[in-house]
Amino acid sequence: MKKISVIGAGTMGRGIAYACAAAGYEVTIQDISEQSLETARSYISKQAAKAGLSIENANLEFTTDLKSAAADADLIIEAVLELMDLKISVFKELDRYAKPSAILATNTSTMSPTEIAAQTGRPKQCIALHFFNPVPKMKLIEIICGLETSDETVESCFHFGEKLGKECVRINEYPGFAVSRMNCLIGNEAMTMLMEGVGSAEDIDKAMKLGLNHPMGPLELADLVGLDTRLRNMEYLHRTLGEKFRPCPILVKYVKAGWLGKKSGRGFYTYS
């Protein structure tokens, strides 16, 4: 692999694009929003400066044109919103525009790569690569195989992850995979405890960090991920895995209020 394209310049997309550029890949990042691309450019420039890298030498390209972004890529990583219809729509377009040998990967944290791959003519070359936020710091990539994903595709993705300096784990497809399934359950229980008055957000998070050695508390993490994103994940897991994943009412209320976490300035915490 030499050329990587990232589709979606949001929090995950720009983080993945930076990690790929820092590892020496030629990277194209595509988004329908010029503003999102400018935000991504600024983010990548700041991350590169911290690491002593020059963005000019990172072989980075920014574009709103999906066709040109896909055309020459060896690996295309979709990082759009956690909406199945949207992901399927993007994959159908990528399947038309990408060269026959290209691997198509989704960065979904919960959804079925088999269902997404089935909408393409190359299910053997479709896979899920679940990166974690913030991408430059988080060491793990979950590699999730669809029903028809080939061993060659899996092997290529392991090599890709290793070049990025990440640890990779192979997970069999099931809703939520490994990390998101457990993380959503812990976060939902923390929200229920907050709603019940068991403790403040600060004390619940502090208890988890000091008592279980978690680097972040579950409510802090939900704010970082985005409460709207967490709610979509919970709704999907509730539909596919049952009642224990029913979203906590306080999560639903906060999203309705526009309290989406760090990105909106308010969630379980208030941000300046």
UniProtKB/TrEMBL annotation:
Q: Which SUPFAM superfamilies match?
A: 6-phosphogluconate dehydrogenase C-terminal domain-like, NAD(P)-binding Rossmann-fold domains
All copies of the 3-hydroxyacyl-CoA dehydrogenase NAD binding domain together span 3-173
Quick one: which pathway? Lipid metabolism; butanoate metabolism
The superkingdom listed in its UniProt entry is Bacteria
InterPro entries assigned to the protein according to its UniProt record, in alphabetical order? 3-OHacyl-CoA_DH (IPR022694), 3-OHacyl-CoA_DH_NAD-bd (IPR006176), 3HC_DH_C (IPR006108), 6-PGluconate_DH-like_C_sf (IPR008927), 6PGD_dom2 (IPR013328), NAD(P)-bd_dom_sf (IPR036291)
Q: Where along the chain is NAD(+) bound?
A: 8-13, 31, 82, 87, 109, 133, 263
* BP-aspect Gene Ontology terms: fatty acid metabolic process
Q: Which UniProt keywords apply?
A: NAD, Oxidoreductase
Q: Where is this site: Important for catalytic activity?
A: 130
Occurrences of domain 3-hydroxyacyl-CoA dehydrogenase C-terminal (ranges): 176-271
Q: What class of enzyme is it?
A: oxidoreductase
Pfam families per the UniProt record, alphabetical: 3HCDH, 3HCDH_N
For this protein, the Enzyme Commission number is 1.1.1.157
Molecular functions (GO terms): 3-hydroxybutyryl-CoA dehydrogenase activity; NAD+ binding
Family, according to the entry, reads as follows: Belongs to the 3-hydroxyacyl-CoA dehydrogenase family.
Q: What is this protein called?
A: 3-hydroxybutyryl-CoA dehydrogenase
Q: Which organism is it from?
A: Metabacillus indicus
